[in-house]
């Protein structure tokens, strides 16, 4: 029943992982997708896996805020935007400094806010459109070493909720998705710095095991589609049952 036929969708962080799968799945449901990422080759790999034609790619670093103007200048109105670009940088609070704090917030929060503001100012979000912000269950927890990352995702959740209130009169919806651990290149890199026993212990805390990018993509498709026309301002947890405990 879910279809994105004739919808124009923008996906940031589309070069790998969850963003790549969101772009692929959206194309299979009929959407015309614009992919944004830093790595041209990886964006091309994503594009090769997609269905349909006339999709676009933009190889830019959104942490450099001036690049957002370039994206805006080449954009047509979108029916949906998925804000997926982000970084993970786990450090205990005592090892933080201004640069590390700034780097995480620049891409995880500030770039999303600036991109949203410019899209709205240029009227590039169609009425009854859908904005989806990819957050994390870290925003709900207190896991050691995740202070700045979790704070950046909490800020994103709050931003999405306020946005939902401001845009409701236009029928534009704004929701955030909070995944648990999903098997991606990013989590595989994290596994390289912890022991095998720690990896197994972490996985055992998920009743349904770790997720896959397609699990998150399915929920995002629902939010992008007209089936979710009565949902806005929500923070949706998808975590294989981790937060049941």
Description:
- The protein has 245 residues and is of the alpha/beta class.
- 42% of the residues lie in helices and 17% in strands.
- It has a seven-stranded parallel beta sheet, with helices on both faces.
- β4 (78-83), α4 (98-121) and β5 form a beta-alpha-beta unit.
- The longest helix has 24 residues, at 98-121.
- It is globular.
Low-pLDDT stretches are: none
Cα-atom Rg, whole angstroms? 17 Å
What is the mean predicted local confidence, pLDDT? Answer: 93
CA-to-CA gap between the ends? Answer: 33 Å
Q: Write the H/E string, N to C.
A: EHEHEHEHEHEHHHE
Total DSSP helices: 8
The residue fraction in helices comes out at 40-55%
Main sheet makeup: 7 strands, parallel
How is the secondary structure organized here?
Elements: E1 8-12, H1 17-28, E2 32-37, H2 40-48, E3 56-59, H3 66-73, E4 78-83, H4 98-121, E5 125-134, H5 147-167, E6 173-179, H6 185-191, H7 196-204, H8 213-224, E7 235-238
Parallel strand pairs: 1-2, 1-4, 2-3, 4-5, 5-6, 6-7
Helix pairs in contact: 1-8, 4-5
């Amino acid at each position: 029943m879910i279809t994105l036929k004739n919808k124009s969708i923008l996906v940031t962080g589309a070069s790998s992982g969850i963003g790549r799968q969101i772009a692929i799945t959206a194309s299979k449901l009929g959407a015309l997708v614009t992919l944004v990422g830093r790595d041209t080759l990886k964006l091309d790999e994503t594009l090769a896996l997609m269905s349909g034609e006339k999709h676009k790619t933009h190889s830019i670093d959104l942490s450099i805020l001036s690049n957002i103007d370039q994206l805006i200048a080449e954009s047509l109105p979108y029916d949906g935007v998925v804000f997926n670009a982000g970084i993970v940088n786990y450090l205990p609070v005592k090892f933080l400094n201004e640069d590390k704090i700034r780097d995480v917030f620049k891409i995880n929060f500030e770039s999303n806010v600036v991109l949203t503001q410019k899209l709205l100012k240029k009227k590039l979000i169609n009425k009854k459109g859908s904005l989806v912000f990819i957050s994390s269950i870290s925003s709900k927890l207190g896991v050691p070493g995740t202070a700045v990352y979790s704070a950046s995702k909490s800020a994103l959740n709050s931003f999405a909720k306020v946005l939902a209130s401001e845009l409701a009169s236009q029928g534009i919806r704004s929701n955030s998705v909070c995944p648990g651990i999903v098997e991606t290149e990013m989590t595989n890199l994290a596994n390289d710095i912890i022991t095998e026993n720690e990896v197994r212990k972490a996985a055992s805390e998920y009743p349904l095991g770790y997720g896959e990018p397609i699990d998150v993509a399915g929920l995002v498709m629902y939010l992008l589609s007209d089936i979710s026309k009565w949902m806005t301002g929500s923070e949706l947890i998808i975590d294989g049952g981790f937060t049941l405990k």
